Amino acid sequence: MTTIEVISAGLFAAALIHTFAAKSFERLSDRFPKHAGLFHLLGEVEVVFGFWAAILMIAMALAAGGKDAINYVESRQYTEPLFVFVVMVVAASRPVLATVRATILTVARLVPLRDTLAQVWLGLAAVPLLGSLITEPAAMTLAALMLAPLVFRRDMPERMKYAALGVLFVNVSIGGTLTSYAAPPVLMVASTWNWDTLFMLGNFGWKAAAAVILNASAMTWLLRSHVPENTGNATESPIPLLVSAIHLLFLASVVLVAHHPVIFLGLFLFFLGFTQAYDRYQSPLILKEGLLVGFFLAGLVVLGGMQQWWLQPIVSSLDPTALFFGALALTAITDNAALTYLGSLIEGISDTSKYMLVAGAVAGGGLTVIANAPNPAGVALLRNGFEDESIGAGGLLLGALLPTAVAAAFFLV
After folding, report:
1. Rounded to a whole number, what is the largest CA-CA distance in the chain?
2. Per-residue pLDDT tens for 245-278?
3. Cα 191 to the chain's mean position, in Å?
4. How many Å apart are CA 49 and CA 127, to the nearest integer?
5. pTM reported for the whole predicted model
6. Helix/strand/coil (H, E, C) string of the chain?
7. Under 8 Å between Cβ of 12 and 311
8. How many Cβ atoms are within 10 Å of 385's Cβ, its own excluded?
9. How many C-alpha atoms does 364 have within 13 Å on its Cβ side?
10. What is the pLDDT of residues 310-365, one digit of tens each?
11. Alpha carbons 336 and 9: distance in angstroms, whole number
C-alpha cells in the first residue's frame, strides 16, 4: 500500500459519494442561480468520475511527478469507453431506431396485450436479451429510446419510473450473458477461463432469460394502468430500405470489431460522413450524450485502476457462496467488469468460484450507475423524464433491489 494508492481510494470514495449526491447539486443550482452553471455541471452523473479522475491525476503528479502520472494514464485500456460512445451514436441513429421500432411493433401485434403495453414488455425483455448479440451498450441505447415516450415521461409517477429503470438496468446486465462476448464482465474472463458461447448458454443463459422475462412481465403488469394507449408520435417520412440497411451494416460492423478501437473508430468516421450525405433521413446524432458517457467510463477506468490493492484480497479470500454475495455487493461500488477482471488474476480459483464471481457481478449490475458499463448510457438518455432532469442514486438502488433479488435467485439455482 503506497501513499498514492491510499489517496486514490479516498478519491474513489469521494466519487461514489458524489454519485449519490448528484441530484442535490441540481437543487443547489436553483438556490444559488449565480453559480447555477457549476452546480449543473457537478450534478451531471456522467461528469462525476471524469472530474475525480482529473483530481487523481493532479494528486499523482504532485506526489510522484508528472511523468509517472502521464505513464499511468497512458497505461489504462480505453477500448470500452470508446466502444460505448461509438455504439451509442450508431444505434441511436434514426434509421436503426426506425427499423427496431417497426420490428417491435410487428411483434407487439402478436402479443396478447394492447400495442403500447406489449412494446413496454418487449423493451424490457426482448431488447435486453438481444444484447447478447448486439452487445449490452447497444441494447441499452435501443431500449432506453424505445421506452422513453412510453414509461419515462414527466406524468408517470416517479416511483414507477425508478422501478422500471431498475428492471431495465438489471435485465440489460444479465441479458448479455447468453454469449461470451456481449457482457463486459463476461468478456473480461472468457478467454482466460475458456468460456465459450455454448458454456454461457448452458450455465448462465437460460437462467438469465428466465429472470429477464419474469422481471419484465411483473413490471409491465405494474405499469398496465400508466402506459398510454398511444404515444402520439408524429408520422416521420419513410427511410429508403438501402439507407436503413447501410446503417444496420455499420452497427453490425462496429459490434464485430468491438475490441479493435482503431478499426471501429475508422468505421465511425465513415458513418458520420454517410449521415451527412443523407442528412434528410437523419435526426440529430446523440454525440453529446455519447461523449459524456465515454467520459464517465474513462474516468472510472482511471480511478478504478488504482483500487486493485484492496479489492483483489477481498475477492480472493471468500468461499464460493460468500463470493457470490460479495461480488453482488461490490459491484454496486465498482464496475462489474473490473471486478471479474481482478478475479481472473487469482491463481488456482475453482470452477465454482469462477461461476459465483461472474454470476454475482452480473446480477448486481443494475444497482448503481457505475455497476455496469451500459448504465451511464441509460441515465444519459432517460434522465430528462425524471424530476430535476436527474436520476437519484438512491431511487435507482431501491428500484433495482427486487429485480436484482430475482436474478440472484435464478443464478443460485
Report:
1. 65
2. 999 999 999 989 988 999 999 999 999 999 999 9
3. 22
4. 28
5. 0.86
6. CCHHHHHHHHHHHHHHHHHHHHHHHHHHHHHCHHHHHHHHHHCCHHHHHHHHHHHHHHHHHHHHCHHHHHHHHHHCCCHHHHHHHHHHHHHCCHHHHHHHHHHHHHHHCCCCCCHHHHHHHHHHCHHHHHHHHHCHHHHHHHHHHHHCCCCCCCCCCHHHHHHHHHHHHHHHHHHCCCCCCCCHHHHHHHHHHCCCHHHHHHHHHHHHHHHHHHHHHHHHHHCCCCCCCCCCCCCCCCCCHHHHHHHHHHHHHHHHCCCCHHHHHHHHHHHHHHHHHCHHHCCCCCHHHHHHHHHHHHHHHHHHCCCHHHHHHHHHCCCHHHHHHHHHHHHCCCCHHHHHHHHHCCCCCCHHHHHHHHHHHHHCCCCCCCCCCCHHHHHHHHHHHCHHHCCCHHHHHHHHHHHHHHHHHHHCC
7. no
8. 20
9. 25
10. 888 888 888 999 999 999 999 998 888 888 888 887 778 899 999 999 999 999 99
11. 17
DSSP string of 304-340, one letter each residue: HTT-HHHHHHHHHTS-HHHHHHHHHHHHTTS-HHHHH
Residue 271 C-alpha cell reads as 458513418
Backbone angles phi, psi at 274, to 5 degrees: -65, -40
Q: What single DSSP character describes residue 93?
A: S
Name the residue among 361, 358, 380 with its Cα closest to residue 288: 380
Question: φ and ψ at 130, to 5 degrees?
Answer: -60, -20
- Grid cell listed for 190: 472468457
Q: Which helix (H) or strand (E) holds 128?
A: helix 126-134
Grid coordinates given for 242: 438501402
Separation between Cα atoms, residue 21 and residue 17, nearest integer Å: 6
Q: Which amino acid appears at position 327 of this protein?
A: A
Residues recorded for the chain: 413
